[in-house]
Amino acid sequence: MKKPATIKDIAEKLQVSIATVSRALRGSTEIKKETKEAVLEMARQLDYHPNLLASSLSSKKSKIIGVVVPTINRYFWSNSIAGIENLAYREGYKVMIFQSGESFNKEVEIVETLANSKVDGIIIAFSKETWTFDHVQHVIDRDVPVVLYERACANLGTSKIKTDDKNGAFILTNHLIARGRKNIAYIGGPLALGVCKDRLEGYHMALQAAGLQVKQHLIITLEDFTFDLAGEAMQQLWAGADKPDGLICFADILAIGAMHAAHQLGIPVPEQLSIAGFGNDETSRFISPPITTMAQPSFEMGKMAARVLLEEIACSGEAHEKKHEVIKSRLIVREST
């Protein structure tokens, strides 16, 4: 087996010091352009590859951050990851991405794996099953910076980046009320998640502010975010005697499932039933009719989370203020309302 080339090999070939080669490979401005070019060319000829583990041990930085999300097959999460990676790469960091699959046990294993892998910091969005947060507190106690993303909790002293979910749901419900809807239903997610509680509360607030009754039989809480469950919820709502004339869904995926069920039931949208979602999933504008939604700037939110984490990594060991960023969503009106 061929022995990997080292910085020493390059230095001997060019008859320069190891320090010069090291600086040239790092792009140091102290090294002449001609020397840099010669070092890079020799590195190519010798098929030199840097030892990232050795570099991280010497610098005490791995230049890697970990990201934990519930799933990567939803637009909000995938676009957020793209934003995180975009900024991290520009700052010389690599990103390790894990999905918990909405499993608390898997999330605990992932967080422990990341901490033991000596990542410089972690961005995490909790699973729907996460009720306790000791696994994250243990990482914080080991001086690994952590930023909570979208799905956060109040009792961890970390920086947090999240959407103003309560106000977003309030605006969305008000939009349906302004369209003349008076019997508005709600399909939401598991209330163990703070984001689900906040959007449901925003819906409640809008109805109460308009003098409309909050009807518990028009509120359905799902245990998962799937098309099929949303479709079943829509059928359940329509089977009742008190049929809704408007529907707010926690997420666009639920609105799409409800829309499909409405078509099967022969319900004209929006003439008889207005349907609105949340998140501005790419597919929501290609449904017929296109779905009204609240747009979250997920890419920019991901960049913001990465920026906050890298700032905390930079001042590791020093006292610094934790940031709590609350991002407003934007109403996009389409033909479903």
TrEMBL record:
Transmembrane segments: none annotated. The keyword Flavoprotein does not apply. It holds the Pfam family LacI. The keyword DNA-binding applies. SMART domains: HTH_LACI. Keywords: DNA-binding, Transcription, Transcription regulation. InterPro entries: HTH_LacI, LacI/GalR-like_sensor, Lambda_DNA-bd_dom_sf, Peripla_BP_I. It comes from the Bacteria. Residues 5-59 form the HTH lacI-type domain. Signal peptide: none annotated. This is LacI family transcriptional regulator. The lineage of its organism: Bacteria, Pseudomonadati, Bacteroidota, Cytophagia, Cytophagales.
